[in-house]
Amino acid sequence: MTPYTAPQTVPPQSGGTSPVPAGGRDRYFDLLRAIALFRVVLYHLVGWAWLPLVFPSMGVMFALAGSLMARSLARPAFQVIRGRVRRLLPPLWVLGAAGITAMLVEGWRPGPSAVFWLLPLSDPPFLAAGWAGDLAEPLWYLRAYLWFVLLSPLLLRCLRKLPWATLAAPLALSFGLAAGYLSMPERIDSALTDFSTFGACWILGMARQEGILARLPRYLVPSVAPFVMLAGIWWARRDGFGSGAELDGIPPADALWSLGAVMMLLHFSPSWQSWPPKLRQWDSVITLLNARAVTVYLWHNVCILGAAALWDVMWDVDLLAEHVPWLLESWVPVLLLAWALIAGCILVFGWAEDLAAKRRPRLWPNGEPRRRSRSHTA
């Protein structure tokens, strides 16, 4: 999840049918990222098991990040990795500063593993308290993203030489881990599981940027992707999905379903330099979510916890409890309140993303000043 930059276009790649945005992104990518973030917040609030089937947010976000990474690697790899890591760490440190301070007050004492709050190569430690678990839960994404960034030069080299073997390798690893063929310490096992689950999506994003998908026959992806998704559903049902197990708890099924869905989304992706008329009204919201993607992702769990606690207080209002208990039991007000708290986090903590990108800090980067400036000069 990288900060928003205005899309520009370059000529089509060999075999392509549409321009490829400079930096590997366009308005369509921004829309997918915004939908992915909204779906993540909704899923962590309501927990509906079918939501990841409707839109596999994590697979989509890793695919978009892989495409951006492949585009960036036209520059020296060390510079690219340093820039990506620099953009990732300051928002994490802001979260860690708040979380660690609260945990110290509650009696937590840091050990050697506390270093992972500075560089999330593995899971950082946290209290057993519910709020601390909610605070730390999203950090697996940063850990996985960091490992993908570090491995990207090697993955891109392998993709160019052996594209299909490189794409299939994470899936093979996922099934190997599920079958128990590999036994690793917990910290290594969790990183390998994340890589095997979403590595194919990251590599698929790189393949799109490299023009590999554009060189395929147009019928191939729509013909293959549904069978990949069906295989994921079959494996999920085999492991108890629908009877208590969630898709993200069945890595091979999650990997197959996410890969198939991302294949379809990237295959049919338009290249939007400007919004279609029906989407123009959402420009500010989508721009803001892209500019503050890391902040939203890091803080949304705590905001959901806070929103639920605040809404529970409404049960103490006898008038509401007696006459509209259905409203107090509804998840909709909690969702709205959670997004209000997320907006507060954007205002209070979002500046860290601008500093990480070496930009002037902005409170509410929804693109409005830039658009007004263009209208004045027209």
UniProtKB/TrEMBL annotation:
Key words of the record: Acyltransferase, Membrane, Transferase, Transmembrane, Transmembrane helix
Domain of life where this protein originates: Bacteria
Annotated segments matching region Disordered: 1-21
An annotated Gene Ontology molecular function: acyltransferase activity
Domain spans labelled Acyltransferase: 27-348
TM stretches of this protein: 47-68, 88-108, 140-157, 219-237, 249-268, 289-311, 331-352
EC number(s) recorded for this UniProt protein: 2.3.1.-
Pfam families tied to this protein: Acyl_transf_3
UniProt feature, compositional bias: Polar residues: 1-17
Protein name: Acyltransferase
Gene source species: Streptomyces kurssanovii
